[in-house]
């Protein structure tokens, strides 16, 4: 009887350990290779569109009026701050490094290749969406409405890339990806609220300073934030294994007859 109990206990320990180290995601080299390649290709195409983008003519510049801007955005027209632009780069850089901090987690570290692959996939998807949109859509940045600025800067093609904020989109992708992966690997971890709060705060900070810098209007930031966050969450979610909600854990207790038992419990979260 003792031998049987020992074997059962050993099996429970092995299964429990395997469950803790199992990844909730799966990686398919063919499908994910195509996805990543499409993202990189789309990004390259978008960069070509941006490079060939035309700026404003003097006539078009002189015809710009703040009154023509929607009320939700009008207040930012004319904003221009190089210091705010420089400050925005700090949380922007931090957001890209944030996911790599998760490699300190033993469970995630056991699947480093998969983790990095999905991260690059997320960023490539965001980059493709942003660059193509920025290359096709003409919208003057807030600083273009600053009449004290040098005319050459105001009419340059860079001034026509207000829609939407690529900085915010990329930052949100990185931080929400980190929060999503951490939550999936550690579903029962305490303090997940603070992880998600930090994920939300960093790109919001980037967006605030991008507006103060005169680079984007509020709606540009909000759209970039939404698309970036959605990508950071959905890419890992689409990689979830079919049995990601299946949980196996050791269990022990006493049945209704009063007999003690030891075994393995299985649960499935819908």
Automatic annotation (TrEMBL):
The protein's matches in Pfam families, at most eight in alphabetical order, are given as: PAP2
InterPro entries from the xrefs? PAP2/HPO (IPR000326), PAP2/HPO_sf (IPR036938)
Q: Which residues form a coiled coil?
A: none
Source organism's superkingdom? Bacteria
Presence of the UniProt keyword Signal in the record: yes
Q: What UniProt keywords apply to this chain's record, in alphabetical order?
A: Signal
- What span is annotated as the signal peptide, if there is one? 1-18
Q: Could you list the residue ranges that cross the membrane?
A: none
Domain Phosphatidic acid phosphatase type 2/haloperoxidase span(s) in chain numbering: 115-236
Protein's name in the database? Phosphatase PAP2 family protein
Recorded source organism is: Gelidibacter salicanalis
Q: What is the taxonomic lineage of the source species?
A: Bacteria, Pseudomonadati, Bacteroidota, Flavobacteriia, Flavobacteriales
